Amino acid sequence: MLLVVGAVSLVGCQLDVTADVVVQPDGSGRVIVQADADAELVERVPTLANDLVLDDFVDAGWIVDGPTPRQDGGLSLTLVHDFEGDDEATSLLRSLGPPFNDLAVGRREDGETATNTVRGNLGLPDGFASFADDDLVDAVGSVPFAEQFEREGLDPAIAIDARLVVTLPGIIGDTNAEEIDGGRLLWVIPTDGSALSASAQTEQAASAGTAWARPVATLALIALVAWVAFMTVFIGYVAFARSRRARGQGRRAPR
């Protein structure tokens, strides 16, 4: 992803990444990842747009828009993926990798109340080494570009600006996020080596967003009862008719 490419840039370049998660009242929703590289990063890595390999995201069902040149000389990349429930949302978010670590969206319904949650560990606790998994380190023998990072004095706290924005349905309860416009929750992700444990919880009416389901279910139940009643009467009528016909044939039979 663009975040990893930005990790090999030089001092002074800026990469902005935002993951925006919107959960609807019925538990479905959408994940939008927006990455923007500034003009200096594009200038120092002129092959940036061509270097991005996004096949895995496309294969996983993400809608990829970009990378698109900006008027200021930078590049923008947008990834979008819808989800049907909390399990799928969690899987999508965990596929993003650092600095969006161990993110999980939850939903629990208890009677008339639904509780929505989001949890995760945000940050780059190992600096740029956070982008290198164990397999990559074993293959290369060290963290890729580690010597270049040290030589150039590259600081992820300066080069990377990352944010997580979440919109949960219902009334916001416990959270350590900043509430911004429209009840959206914002976490500014530390990239200085520290970590932030993100958490939020909202409560809503369990039927919110599915108000149509109850009358439809009632109509379906009425239709089922009516069908059973009709079939009972019909079967009884057929049995009675056959029995009557059999008795009539018995009386008319020659002796």
Topology of this structure?
Layout: H1 2-6, E1 15-23, E2 29-37, H2 39-44, H3 48-51, H4 55-59, E3 63-69, E4 75-83, H5 86-94, E5 100-110, E6 113-123, H6 134-140, H7 146-152, H8 156-159, E7 160-167, E8 171-175, E9 178-179, E10 185-189, E11 195-205, H9 213-252
Parallel strand pairs: 1-7
Antiparallel strand pairs: 1-2, 2-4, 3-4, 5-6, 6-11, 7-10, 8-11, 9-10
Provide a concise account of the structure shown.
This protein has 255 residues and is an alpha+beta fold. It contains nine helices and eleven strands. It has two domains: 2-205, no CATH class; 212-255.
Quick tags:
single chain, 255 residues, alpha+beta, 2 domains, 34% strand, disordered N terminus
Largest sheet: 7 strands, mixed
Number of helices: 9
Low-confidence stretches: 1-11, 132-149, 209-214
Oligomer: single chain
- Coarse morphology: elongated
In order across it, which strands form the biggest sheet? 3-4-2-1-7-10-9
The radius of gyration over CA amounts to: 30 Å
How many beta strands in the DSSP annotation? 11
Please write the string of helix (H) and strand (E) elements: HEEHHHEEHEEHHHEEEEEH
> How many domains comprise the coordinates?
2
Beta-strand portion reads: 25-35%
Structural class: alpha+beta
Instruction: Give the rounded overall mean pLDDT.
Output: 76
End-to-end C-alpha gap:
95 Å
